[in-house]
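Revision sheet: structure tokens.
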Amino acid sequence: MTVGEALAHGTHVLAEAGIDTARLEAELLLAKACDDCARALLYMELRRDLSPEAEEGYEALLVRRARREPLAYILGHWGFRRLTLKTDKRALIPRPETEIVVERALEHLNGMGEPAVLDVGTGTGAIALAIVDEHPRARVTAIDASEEALALARENLNLLGINGRVRLVEHDLTEGLGRDEFDLVVSNPPYVEPEDIETLQPEVRDWEPRIALVAHGATEAVARAATEALRPGGWVVLEIAENQAANVAGVLRNLGYEHLRISPDMAGRDRVIEAQWSR
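Predicted:
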């Protein structure tokens, strides 16, 4: 099988499995099977025969993706802002809307000397690591109730060489978040309602960790706990489901937050909410 034939075959297999970006994903999987070569190189060698090892490896990757295993888990890494993070089933895959969470968090940290940040439910460590990567003096405490997720976050911390300014802690939200310790609390909490899980794409529903996806009232719990953890004038920045903005805004106002702002994702859906704690 040549490179060109492999791409055509992979595109067909993935399209039949219902994957919208079949051609792109076929390219990425073939590049991985060919010892992680660059995608662009594939098109310079369309007539080259694949080695038996590469062909066998490619078929195995296609089988995994056709079963709707997330591409990020198969590739083992995923881009997030300026970082490339290790990804696997221990934590949620970093998403573009979470990049907006980081953008809004950084806006509130701009000009602060050594801001103290709390990342609740850190998962891969994406938010915490992106903040310290882009704010040279920020210090982040990143917590998660999942020991497995924290192990993955620690691997990313070590891979990126960002040491000393991120502290990883196994901690459950129900134990509180401290008192008057942080300038900013940021979180991508589980916000899928239990009754909605079957409406999700198979990649999410069947593969990503339920503990990080599904919960009732987790967003309010983070916002409530943050009222004690934040210093006066501190900010909370939260990722939310696209249909939750009005409800979450009401919750924040009832808790005493002020200066609410809602930000859309790149598709125009309201996905990030922020507010200031002034008491």
